[in-house]
Write a structure and sequence with these properties.
Strand order of the largest sheet: 2-1-3-4-11-10-9-6-7
Distance between the termini: 55 Å
Number of strands: 11
Low-confidence stretches: none
Oligomer: single chain
Number of helices: 9
Length: 305
């Protein structure tokens, strides 16, 4: 307790004092179970295997912008699931060197596009909205009923600001500074909720550890939150309202959204950083090579069958 009191006092000076107090209380709660797992499916089952074995590899565009840093991990996860992951830089789209025609999916990755100028993902989104060619390219892609979209962290922030182009995304929030007033890099717990998301099919009810790394992840809504797909929970599985189980202060622990048809999904945490068991700091001994988050990427491949 004496050691933690010093840490808590320093955090109260540096960060949000209420969050510092909540974290200090959680450190001293001997009854808190910490990280736990409830998997609603078998992570070892590769639902994409029948389609991968046929040799067909749909193309997914792994979008990259200045400051984005999660594209290699994301490409690795989609490649493992049976996709042809294509590195697509925004300059290629702006210049018309490449279009999104022929891509089955796009994924906007995490990082710090433009150093978070204009807010998290703001500069990236406006480079699309205010460029007629690029805006039309994205609008046409989102309108195609055979495509899927994933946004993670900075990509989640960016896509949320493209909601006027995405059918069914009208209620999506904007993402603002974390309640803790600091960058959050930690392992958190989230629960996958029952939703129409094509990427989270068969995962409802799962409570899983996941990597978190963001400074502006607090969801701020103008009205109702729309279709919620995931939320932060504590070790007991209860909705996380306090820090640090809820690392950004989003209401109701909300950290994942989708559209009514489930084709576009936003996640603030990083499933691509924890799709293999070796990427977990702790996992049940019975798990094989693939962690439960690999199911998200295989869901995408199965949906594209």
């Amino acid at each position: 307790r004496a050691w933690s009191d010093c840490t808590g006092a320093l955090a109260a000076l540096r960060d949000d004092p209420d969050c510092a107090a909540e974290e200090q209380a959680s450190r001293l709660d001997a009854s808190a179970p910490g990280l736990s797992v409830r998997v609603a499916f078998d992570p070892a089952v590769d639902i994409a295997a029948p389609y991968v074995n046929k040799g067909a590899r749909p193309r997914v565009a792994v979008l990259r912008e200045q400051g984005v840093n999660g594209q290699v991990e994301m490409a690795a996860a989609f490649t493992r699931a049976g996709f042809d992951a294509v590195d697509v830089h925004m300059t290629d789209l702006h210049g018309g060197v490449i279009t999104l025609d022929g891509f089955a999916g796009i994924v906007a990755c995490g990082g710090f596009s433009y150093g978070d100028v204009l807010g998290g993902g703001g500069g990236w989104a406006k480079s699309i909205l205010f460029n007629a060619r690029t805006r039309d390219t994205f609008a046409a892609f989102f309108a195609r009923p055979d495509t899927f979209t994933l946004g993670v962290c900075n990509g989640c922030q960016m896509l949320a600001q493209l909601k006027e182009l995405i059918p069914g995304a009208e209620a999506w929030p904007r993402f603002v500074r974390n309640r803790s007033n600091r960058f959050e890099a930690r392992l958190a717990m989230i629960e996958v909720l029952d939703s129409p998301s094509v990427l989270l099919r068969g995962m409802a009810g799962a409570r899983l550890p996941i990597a978190v790394a963001h400074g502006e992840g607090r969801a701020e809504f103008e009205g109702t939150p729309g279709v919620v797909a995931a939320r932060f929970v504590d070790g007991n599985g209860h909705v996380a309202e306090s820090y640090p189980a809820n690392p950004n202060g989003s209401p109701g622990g909300l950290t994942g959204l989708t559209t009514a048809d489930g084709r576009a999904t936003l996640l603030m945490p990083h499933p691509e950083r924890i799709f293999r068991t070796v990427q977990h700091s702790w996992r049940p001994d019975a798990w094989g090579d693939d962690g439960p988050w690999m199911r998200l990427f295989r869901n995408a491949r199965e949906w594209q069958a």
